[in-house]
Amino acid sequence: MGVRRSFKFLLRPTGKQVAALTKCLDDHRELYNAALEHRRTAYRKARVSVRYGDQSAELKHIRADDPDGQGRWSFSFRQATLRRLDKAFGGFFDRLKAGRTPGFPRFKGRGRFNTVEWPKDGDGCRWDSQPHHRTATYVRLQGIGHVRVHQHRRVLGTVKTISVKREGARWFVVLSCDDVPAGTLPVTGAVAGIDLGVASLATTSDGQHLANPRHLAVTAGRLAAAQRDLARKKRGSRRRRKAVARVAALHAKVRRQRLDSAHKAALTLVRDHDMIAHETLKVTNMTKRAAPRPDGDGGHLPNGAAAKSGLNRSILDAGWGVFLTILSHKAESAGRQLIAVNPANTSRTCAECGHCAKDNRTTQAVFRCTACGHEAHADVNAAINILRAGLALRDAAQAA
Hints:
Layout: E1 2-12, H1 15-46, H2 52-65, H3 75-97, E2 115-118, E3 125-127, E4 137-141, E5 145-150, E6 158-167, E7 170-181, E8 191-196, E9 200-204, E10 209-211, H4 215-231, H5 238-272, E11 275-279, H6 283-286, E12 293-294, E13 300-301, H7 305-318, H8 320-334, E14 337-341, E15 366-368, E16 375-377, H9 378-399
Parallel strand pairs: 8-11, 11-14
Antiparallel strand pairs: 1-5, 1-7, 2-6, 3-4, 4-5, 6-7, 8-9, 9-10, 12-13, 15-16
């Protein structure tokens, strides 16, 4: 059975094509903001809710009145942007119904609208538009032309949608493909529990430690220098724009390095194990700022904010959320089983006798049970508990 996968490739546009791609993003951003203003104004003045269907029906007249702007792009291409806004409103109302405090959909500035999507290959776009070219791959985009693609791997399945994304000074094409072969891996008979950490990205129940490269920490010196240089530049100046680009390039490099490390670590686990159990982690909640402690006299007591800030930075640098997302995708594609377990007390419970106490974990790395005296690496002990919880959930699901 095929699955849906995405393939991302670097674009090699010419100078004119870069200008055209930038204009394309600007036109779609203007449509997005205008449609958002339409919804806000209609509800504020008349208490009328404007839907996607209403705005899609008006799109024909908008394109006719602006042939050199909105009219340059295909109808379905513009509809995709309206669906994007509708999806933002849908997410807002879903979070509202769930009792959360969501932010209302916002207007997009130039730096906050970097992706556009063609909803169908062949409608305003064409992947591999010059199939007989000997050395290069091209994607044809309406209003932009044939853009060269750095295709570093084979595209599998059927191309359904084509997106173009700007990341700093780079442009990428993202292909969403259906019916991609799953690529199921052979059965190994091995199972593992993993404990995510900061010293090691992940520790398995059999004692393997997957390294945490700490890419942000390695780049921290260069990033701090670039940010100090940015702070000295006058707003609106050409030098400031260059300084902003340097900071963005450093952050983009860290992001690419983190993704690469997460892919490699996840692939190692998926290749070697049929079932992987991991903790259910809410990284957003774990990296919240330390709550203030008023002293009652208008001041504040020490709340460990500096230490909490450093821990938050380390957690985000490790990229737990990204790693678990990639692990989930690879496990599904390879036919492996991934089970999420409740992390409560997994680091405090002895894997030998089951005694649970805060004092069992004497340091960050050492676990020593106060009841039976069992000693082990703290992360390995936690990973064994996670594996047992995962196996219990698997057995219960099979018995049901």
